[in-house]
What does this fold into?
Amino acid sequence: MAGSLAGGATAGVGATISTNSVTSTILAYIGSTDKKSITVDDILVNSQGIQNFNNLLAMGFGGGQVGVGGSSLANVVDATVKSYIKENSSIVSATNLKIEASDSTKVTGSVVAGAGAEYVAGGASVGVNKITNTVEAYTENNVNLNLSKSEIN
It folds into this structure.
């Protein structure tokens, strides 16, 4: 939450700016680079990213003759979520293998600007969201799988 308030006998002028930024990398993997086999009944490789923003940005400006103001809110999310089996791994599983990756980004925001004056009043608000998410579930190169059931989501 961010806000500002300005006033003056002749003029009230101002601005409110808020920027929120998050960069996250979530990795879930299994494997062995020394060529040893992994033997188990059930394998679940799961990664999950969750980003939530709740924003309120408000401003008010007033002046005897002139009131001018503005507010700007920016949310930037750059998330990478990966689940995988490492290169050159050998996995022997009697029943199940699941590789899952998911991401959820929720942005809730309000941007409010107001101005008042006897002669001239003006206000403006801008809200911008930039969301870049990469979500992958996979096996790398040269993976030996001996399975009765597998699922990649």
About this structure: The chain is about 0% helix and 85% strand. The first strand starts at residue 2 and ends at 8. The two ends are 37 Å apart (CA to CA). The chain has a mean pLDDT of 83.
